[in-house]
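Weekend entry, working from home. Most of the wet-lab plans are on hold until the incubator is repaired, so I used the time to fold the two sequences that have been sitting in the queue since the last round of cloning. Logging both here for the record. First:
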Amino acid sequence: MLSDLVTRADVVEDWAGLDFLQDFHALMNADMVGTSPASGFSVLAVRLNTRARLFIEPDVAARRIRPFEAWTP
């Protein structure tokens, strides 16, 4: 449900000056992750995530989002 979504701001204060590290930490520990394959930053965080049940990314050719496996090319 959308009402169950939790954002970083709901659970923790911002890490002043370390926004990128806090984002990386959130991606590594999220239960579901949406990412861009063009972002090495998010792809690395996703590959280090051992708890996510679902990974999604854009499929530009099909004009949709699709699930993917973090450890396949």
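Second, folded right after the first finished:
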Amino acid sequence: MAFFRPRVTREAEVRYHADQEVAKGFPQVLESAREAELALREAQAAEATPEELRAAGLAFDRAITDALRAAEAGQRATFGVKAYDDRIRRRKAKATPRGAMWTSEVDRLRTLREINRITGIARVPRPVPLAARP
């Protein structure tokens, strides 16, 4: 008695092709993140108001998050369609040169986003209402 087992699930194929499409736009998304970072650094150097610094920091956060999503999609697509269903294949794919390149890029972008979230987004002081004062 022979059992037929499909090599790849249909869901994995769909996710693989979707990730390939998202990963195609990675260079453009990364460039927009660089531009947003440059705008934030220029605002910091010009000693902009806290509201302007906050807006620039949030714009950079959105741009770096989009770049991170594209990099993660590129990483998954590089690992291959079979890696969507098999954790061993994912682990082995990380050891390949292209897999290691994407993994380091994802780690770099995550670190950059977290640093921005901790130090790059200015906190705007809000006035305390009169009823809340002691």
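Plan for Monday: verify the second prediction. Residues 75 and 103 are 7 Å apart (CA to CA).
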